[in-house]
Amino acid sequence: MAKIDAFFKLMHDQGASDLHLVAGQPPALRINGEMERVKYKVLDSDDLREMLYEIAPEEKIKIFEEKGDLDFGYEIPNVARYRANFFMQRNGVAAVFREIPSKILTPEQLGLPPVMTKLAMLPRGLVLVTGPTGSGKSTTLAAIIDVANRRRKDHIITIEDPIEFVHQSKGCIVNHREVMVHTKSFSAALRGALREDPDIILVGEMRDLETISLAIEAASTGHLVFSTVHTTSAAKTLDRIIEVFPSHEQAQIRSTLADGIRAVIGQTLMKRIDKRGRVAAFEILIGTPAVRNLVREGKTHQINSMIQTGKKYGMQLLDDAIMELCKQGKISPDDAYTRANEKARFRPLLTAPPADFTEV
Length: 360
Hints:
Blueprint: H1 5-14, E1 18-22, E2 28-31, E3 34-37, H2 45-53, H3 58-67, E4 69-76, E5 80-89, E6 92-101, H4 107-110, H5 114-118, E7 125-130, H6 137-151, E8 155-160, E9 173-178, H7 186-193, E10 200-203, H8 209-220, E11 224-229, H9 234-243, H10 250-260, E12 261-271, E13 278-286, H11 289-296, H12 303-308, H13 318-327, H14 333-339
Parallel strand pairs: 7-11, 7-12, 8-9, 8-10, 10-11
Antiparallel strand pairs: 1-2, 1-6, 2-3, 4-5, 5-6, 12-13
Helix pairs in contact: 7-8, 8-10, 10-11
């Protein structure tokens, strides 16, 4: 048993999402979105380095010492998997570990809207899940992929850095590929995937132009592609993808993206006040013909209006989802106000509305 496993056990027992080990500071856990110090001594850089190196593969240690940053996966059997990130900082070495539960929760357990479950059964197209770091994108995608794995008889390939949720083959054959372990890059794996008879491809993150281009191409040539983007709304997600390309290619990519896009799910996690834990609020854009036409014509600024009128298709704005959670007493009005896009709509809910400098 590695020395660091005691921290992972504490993390698991406390229901923490992240463990922070930083030289020059005591350990800390992120519980329900908030950092809490662990009653433990200040970590010495050399001792922490020795502790971290005990669980890192030798080839990964070499990468870390050369570059000062490292991502990899670590697993404690029958407990959980952990997404590890090592980095150098002013006082020495540091690391952050995200717990990936060994059990994949169902859409019902996560409280996903019914339309999101239907995405698992799409024959082809591009489905994007967006949101800030730590908003539960991987958990949402894992639940959707699990539905496909149970209900379909297809080939699923995941390309991740590192592998997070592990899916056992059920109705589908599932192959997991990790960047820098099983393939050189997302783009190399995506290029290879097109020759590996896939039906569903999960791309952990669309990071660069080549990966984005290949993912859109795969979605437009008969595959169902799931991926994540670090954006805050459906409209901004589509704009971000298009803006990655050189200006002379943007008209063509708008057309290709319009043909392929099937859904954009934006989400954020919020602290519950009715019980322990967090709850997700979702923005849902479904790629109806009218929506795809807006993308093709470069009128993404009209997408929010389209979402408002598309409730019969399961669409909803993030602010509407946040307002509903607030009315149900699941989140505080203050938190709702902080996370909302149109803050003026939420000011009447507050007993003492703050002077919001962002609206000046």
